[in-house]
Amino acid sequence: MIGNRLKTLRKEKGYSINELAAKAEVSKSYISYIERGIQQNPSLHVLAKLANSLETTVEELLYQRNNGIDDEWISIINRGIEQGVTKRELIQYLDFMKYLKQKELINESKSIKFRTAIHRSL
After folding, report:
1. In the predicted model, what is the mean pLDDT of residues 69-85?
2. Domain span holding position 97
3. Contacts of 90 (CB under 8 A, 6+ apart)
4. Does residue 86 form part of some domain?
5. Of 21, 30, 52, 68, which is the most exposed, with the fewest CB atoms less than 10 Å away?
């Protein structure tokens, strides 16, 4: 969706809606409408102004090239990078979450076996 892409690019540049509006000479309410999905079909003229202000192309503004990863995931990862999270720390976190899920599955399996054993003994 163009709104999410616009918002992501704007934030990557560090612009507020007001700053982008002034730079692109597009009203801040119109930019907000695009970002929120209220305006889903902005004119090519407006898209060109926004793309130019964001130092990108209309094509890049319209098309996501992130292999199906949605903007929210990209935003979360960017936030982690901004907060100083290293690749190694992220990998350790993912490994830890995998461990917890496996532990949870093992405990769930044990619980099911225990309940089955009790049921059979009755």
Report:
1. 84
2. 91-121
3. 80
4. no
5. 68
Q: What is the pLDDT of residues 7-41, one digit of tens each?
A: 999 999 999 999 999 999 999 999 999 999 999 89
Phi, psi at 67, each rounded to 5°: 55, 40
Q: Are residues 68 and 96 in the same domain?
A: no
Report which of residues 106 and 26 the model is more confident about. Answer: 26
Residue type present at position 42: P
Sorted by sequence, the CB contacts under 8 Å of residue 62 that are 6+ apart come out as 2, 5, 47
